[in-house]
Structures are given as C-alpha cells and as structure tokens.
Amino acid sequence: MPLLALTGGIASGKSTIARRLAEHGAVVVDADAIVRDVQQPGSAVLDALAGEFGDDIIREDGSLDRGALAGRTFGDPAAVRRMNAIVHPAVRAESARRFAAALASDPDAVIVYDVPLLAETRADDPWDLIIVAHAPAAIRRQRLIDLRGFTEADAQARIAAQVSDEARLALADVVVDTAAPLADTLAQVDRLWQDLPRVIAQK
C-alpha cells in the first residue's frame, strides 16, 4: 500500500492532479474535507474553537462561520497556532482512520493524501512519495483573480500567508509542472501513475 502525499500552494492545480490520480484508481483522502468534517456542529473541535475564539464564530444553525474564524486568525501567527493546536490533532487522527479503512478495503490500494499544509504540518510523516504541484506565484495569483474573483491584494496576501515555493519544492520527490497547459499537466500525472513502482523504489 503506497501512501503518497500531494501538496501545492493555493491555485497550484493540486485538485486537478488529485482528480486525475483518482481516475487512475487511487484512493484520495482530502485533508480540507476532513477539516470540514471534524468541525461539524456539535463536534468537540467546534466547541474548542468557540471556547478559544468566541461563540460568535458559530452561526445560528450551529455550523462554523469560516469567515468569522478567518477574521480572528488570518495574519496573526499566534492565533493561527492556537487554531491549529485544536484542529490538527483531530485531522491527523481522522486521516489515519481513513488510511486504515482504505487499506482494509484493498491492501494494494494507492492512497493519496491531498494536503495543502504538508510543509507546515506533516512533512516528516513516513510518506512513500511526496508530489508537489508547482506553478510560479505570479501564475497562481492571476488564477485567484481570474477564476476565484480575488482582488490582487487579497490574492497576494493568501499566497504570502503560505510557506514559500522553495520550502515546498525542497520536500518534493516528484514535481508536477502545473504552469503547463492542462493536457501537459495531465500527461505528467499519467506518466507518474504508470511509473509509480519504479519512482517509489528510486526515491
């Protein structure tokens, strides 16, 4: 059971790579989806976040107001650390449960953990391979503006809030160039899938 980590900066095309790997048969475990799941109404994580950042981060329906939480944490490293200390242990436990479930279902499964914050949180875990989706920051900034409606200032702030490209690339066993046209990016993923046993053996 190979366990692969897939990471990349915001708007790097990481989700495109994850979808392609899933089409080839990989079991993709999405860290962002786990974050949402562990913060469901009534969860211990949500209760702890409200205790730390105020009950007004919870909407009337009991769900997390992500914008309100972001407003309390974005750009404040100490607040981000407090938030992460609540959220990350729960995400780690749930991801381990999902890895184990995938393995129990298929001992030969290729499991891909789609994790934006690998460099920040789980770089030292025992991955069989680390894949980094990479496009220069200028391209990612333009994608945020064109595709997600960000202002230039907001796009730049979101990119600046993440670790540097250099830090992510330093972790990479494989880099997928996502600045290339989509067809080229997908072809890179297809070649990786075909060569996966050899690539893992040679890392």
Automatic annotation (TrEMBL):
Keywords, ordered alphabetically: ATP-binding, Coenzyme A biosynthesis, Cytoplasm, Kinase, Nucleotide-binding, Transferase
GO molecular function terms noted in the UniProt entry: dephospho-CoA kinase activity
Residues that, per the record, bind ATP: 11-16
EC id: 2.7.1.24
Record-linked InterPro entries: Depp_CoAkinase, P-loop_NTPase
Family, similarity comment: Belongs to the CoaE family.
The protein's name: Dephospho-CoA kinase
Organism of origin: Microbacterium invictum
